[in-house]
Amino acid sequence: MAIVGGSEEATVVVRNKQVILREYVPASGFPKESDMCVTTIGTIKLMLPDQVGSDGVLVKNLYLSCDPSQRSRMTKTPQQRPIRGYGVAEILVCGHPNFEKGDLVWGITGWEEYSVLTKPAADTLTKIQHTDVPLSYYTGILGMPGMTAYIGFYEICSPKKGQYVFISAASGAVGQLVGQSAKLQGCYVDLLKNKFGFDDGFNYKEEPDLNAALKRSVAVHFFPNCNVGGKMLDAVLLNMRIGDRIAMCGMISRYNLGQAEGVHNLIYLVAKRVRMEGFLVPDYYHLYLKFLELVLPYINEGKIVDVEDKAQGLESGPAALVELFTGRNVGKQVVVVALE
Ligand SMILES: NC(=O)c1ccc[n+]([C@@H]2O[C@H](COP(=O)([O-])OP(=O)(O)OC[C@H]3O[C@@H](n4cnc5c(N)ncnc54)[C@H](OP(=O)(O)O)[C@@H]3O)[C@@H](O)[C@H]2O)c1
User: Fold this and answer.
1) Is CATH 3.30.110.70 correct for 144-282?
2) What's the domain of life for this entry (predicted)?
3) What phi and psi, each to the nearest 5 degrees, are found at residue 125?
4) Which of 130, 173, 259, 278 has the fewest CB neighbours in a 10 Å radius?
5) What does the pLDDT read at residue 68?
């Protein structure tokens, strides 16, 4: 740390470690740790630069979230700049009318120790009102992935007690929460018996025939929350029943493919009168308080847990991010940048 200037206008200057995107990642192929580098040579003045105007904030990043959506940004983000993603941060200097110095927030930030966030990113930050839960939960169960699970399950699929729910990528950030919500609703949940107490499951990496795997696990599946796409979606379509619903959440199986896999069984949507609906969670952020009212009591009563996979330090960020695409994580993959 260094102090610049006289006593009246003294500005603190600190090191600002950053994860920089070294190379664009081509649309086809898995991202590699070596596409990113961690630099420790940069510094930052703990003040808002003049050009930021009155709407910016300077934050200290505490937790960063590893999300599949960062993959497409690695193809487009300008090189030699810190990568961006969801995180939890403390506001150190505030020029934004919605916040104050000392507020804890979650939203889009930079993969670095300190970030200056300007419009429109600063407008999307959400003030954290409940601090009696671990702050890292705002990268997962109480942040964007939790809202995604809530919208797919309650707003789009809304299955009833006793119905069967199939979830793909069920051990990840979104999937684990959809499954636990389904269990609380009294549904039968296909996947991950041991870890999350679901009813049945299989590992798609060890199954030569996904259709057969679906048929031998819990009967037929009523309301898939579809996170994967590709072959898994094709197998699920074969196993739908009349009037079923699919919340199309994402297609992680194609994020590293230049040429997308085809889906061949869409005709079953017609025969089985299935409603399949895609959604993007930011369109539903106006429901965030309703979501908190539902999920906070469940967390406090221990009825829903957020299984986290915590990587310590920004240095571990690149490995944690690329391993999301090989499925090394169990639960929400978080990078711890600083202690609260
Ligand atoms: N619509 C929205 O607004 C929205 C918001 C958030 C997330 N999403 C989508 O939801 C999905 C899950 O996101 P998340 O945050 O919960 O990530 P995550 O599950 O925490 O991590 C990704 C998981 O996907 C599985 N996976 C990776 N590559 C795969 C492949 N080729 N085929 C099948 N499974 C694969 C891995 O688990 P295993 O290999 O161990 O099964 C990995 O753990 C993604 O498609 C994401 O884009 C959508």
Assistant:
1) no
2) Eukaryota
3) -70, 145
4) 259
5) 92
* pLDDT mean over 223-242: 73
CA 128 to ligand 1 centroid distance, Å: 25
Q: Which residues of 279-304 are buried (b: 16+ CB within 10 A; e: fewer)?
A: bebeebeebbeebbeebbeebeeeeb
Fold of domain 2-139+306-336: Quinone Oxidoreductase; Chain A, domain 1 (3.90.180)
Cα–Cα distance, 171 to 339 (Å, whole number): 26
More confident residue, 82 or 239: 82
Protein residues with CB under 6 Å of any ligand 1 atom: 67-69, 145, 148, 169, 171-175, 204, 227-228, 249-253, 279-281, 324-325, 327, 329, 333
- Tokens linked to 214: 């679906």
What are the structure tokens assigned to 92, written together? 């150190």
Q: Which pTM value belongs to this model? A: 0.89
